[in-house]
Each structure stands twice: as C-alpha cells, then as structure tokens.
Amino acid sequence: MYCDARLLNRWIFLAAVLGFMFTACGQERVDPAFSALVEQQNEMPETGELGAGDKFEIRVFSEEHLSGEFTVSTDGTINYPYVGRIQVSGRTCADVEEFITVGLRDGYVRNPAVSCALVEYNSKRIFVFGEVKKPGSFPYQSNLSIIEAFALAGGFSERASTNNTKLTRVVNEVEIQVRVPMQEIVEGRQRNIRLLPGDIVFVPESAY
Q: Given Cys at both, which of 36, 51, 104, 199 links 112, Cβ 3.0 to 4.6 Å?
C-alpha cells in the first residue's frame, strides 16, 4: 500500500519544523525529516518504469535462445525473438514479462515461464556533489542506497562534513531538503536510506 501523499507532506513538514527547533536549542539531533523518510521509504511508489537506455534481462525457463540482456532503444522499444518489436518505455518489468508471456504462448512456446530483471537504469539518474572524490551524475539502480551512491562517487574527500550531508528530493512536486547523518549510517547507528531517481546528494566542506 502506498502512503497518502498529503499525509507524507505534512509529516515531512512537521519533522522539518521540529528539526529547526532542536537546532535552535543547540542540541545535536538526527534531522526528524530524515527519520520520517526512512520510516516511509518502504511505502514509497516503485520506480520501475523503463525508459531509453535502460538494460534488463529476460529469462525463459528451458529456452536459452529466448533469454538474454536487452537495452531499450531511443524509440522506447526492444526487438524480441518471435514476438517482434515491443514498446517497453513507460512499462515495468512485470508488464514486459506479461507481454512476452502472451506473445510466446501464441503458437511458439507452451506455458512459457518468463522473468524480467532490471540490470541498469540509464534513463533515471541520481546526483552526488560536494566533498566526494568523483562528483557527478550516475545511473539509478533499483533499490540504490545512499551508501552505494557514495561508493559510485568514490567515497568522501578528507574535507567532507559527513554528518551534514544534504539530500534534496522532490515529493509530489514539492522540493524538500533533509540532513543525512552519513557518519552514523556508516557506523551502523542509523538506518540506511534508499534513493529515488532525481535525488541530489550534497556533502559540504568541514569547517575544521
């Protein structure tokens, strides 16, 4: 079940206000807005719609010649054996599984067992900037965590203020910014967080 968008927005807004109050009081606390996102992340909508450049693997049980890796072309299609050219842009892997199953069942394979697994999103990206060794944009991967994103960016620089990392995300057309306690996540004292396509992560320079 997906979370109610209005409830999530109110929850994040309240958490941000509380975070400001705690900061104003001089207390070092985890940003309540971060805690809210962590608690809500398992209820966030799936991000599995395919787009141009995305790679996925199709496996058909006991039919190796029908199995392989496919890349979505610029017109949003793939060319699949027997079935022909398929429009996959805007569809999920589950949609592709169903479409190919029906196509193969139509006179080619009796009771085909088809599975689809995402390999790499190239139509969706995340961005890591600031005090990291290799800042830039990176292809989004299914269930990509913020720890994995920093691995893609080569890790932190020596000047990084890790616990002041900022995550910028658009939630229902509203841009929010959350302080992420990266050092505490690395040390296992806070939960990891799953990124979404379009997320921007910024690591500021330490004042010391």
A: 104
Q: Name every residue whose Cβ is closer than 8 Å to that of residue 207 and which is 6 or more positions away in sequence.
A: 161
Interatomic CA distance for residues 32 and 29, integer angstroms: 8
Cα separation, 22 vs 14, whole angstroms: 12
Q: Measuring CA to CA, which residue among 88, 74, 145 is closest to residue 118?
A: 88
CA distance 167 to 155: 16
Structure tokens at 120: 């790499």
pLDDT per position as a tens digit, 120-144: 888 989 999 999 999 999 988 878 8
Distance between CA atoms of residues 166 and 142, nearest Å: 21
The CB-side HSE value for 49 (13 A sphere, CA atoms) comes to: 8
CB contact at 8 A, 74 and 63: no
| Cα–Cα distance, 13 to 162 (Å, whole number) | 24
d(CA 126, CA 143): 12
pTM: 0.67
Please write the tens of the pLDDT for every residue from 61-115. 999 999 999 999 999 999 999 999 999 999 999 999 999 999 999 888 989 999 9
Write down the residue that tokens 């088809």 correspond to. Answer: 114
